Amino acid sequence: MHPSQLCRGETWKAVIAHNLTATFHACAVTARLVVESRAKGVFINFGSVAAGGNPGQAAYASAKAAIVGLTRTLAREFAEFGIRVVCIALGFFDAPSARKNVPGSRLKTLAPSTSQKRLGRVEELASAIDFILENEYYNESVLELDGGLVL
């Protein structure tokens, strides 16, 4: 990517708003409701393997990396209220959203780049969520669910 294309202001703002700011607001609003009801809970934020850096995705990678920091901070702040906060850092999954947003040629090169030699299955994401929900000691952590993919 040419540096002149790196950070178009509106694109940057939109990606940060859609990923990071939306996650923050969802946690803040939900936390208030959970605390007021005196319930316990777990918030699962979604990060990405791209948080480690991925060419052409400066805004997205930055937003997803910031979600990790947000997750760890909120986990510490909400612990006294019985709220756990964790993050799942996703790789690429064989799902409609991936097929819509990632060119088919790119998906074909990503699958062999994992140690599993395939994309993740939605059922595997569901299993990871079950693990987080069932394990009350799991908190303030990032579960990397990426098939061993390194971008």
Q: What is the fold named in CATH at topology level?
A: Rossmann fold
Number of strands: 3
Tally the helices.
Answer: 5
Largest sheet, in brief, is:
3 strands, parallel
Strand/helix succession: HEHEHHHE
CATH-scheme architecture? 3-Layer(aba) Sandwich
Fraction in beta strands: 5-15%
Going by CATH, what is the homologous superfamily?
NAD(P)-binding Rossmann-like Domain
Whole-number mean pLDDT: 91
Sheet with most strands: strand arrangement? 1-2-3
Radius of gyration: 17 Å
Account of the 3D structure:
This protein is an alpha/beta fold and 151 residues long. 50% of the residues lie in helices and 13% in strands. The longest helix is centred in the N-terminal third of the chain and has 28 residues, at 9-36. It is globular.
Keywords:
3-stranded parallel sheet, Rossmann fold, alpha/beta, about 150 residues, 5 helices
Task: Please outline what is shown here.
It contains five helices and three strands; from the N terminus they run αβαβαααβ. With 151 residues, the protein is an alpha/beta fold.
What is this structure's SSE topology?
Elements: H1 9-36, E1 41-48, H2 58-78, E2 83-90, H3 96-101, H4 104-110, H5 122-134, E3 142-145
Helix pairs in contact: 1-2
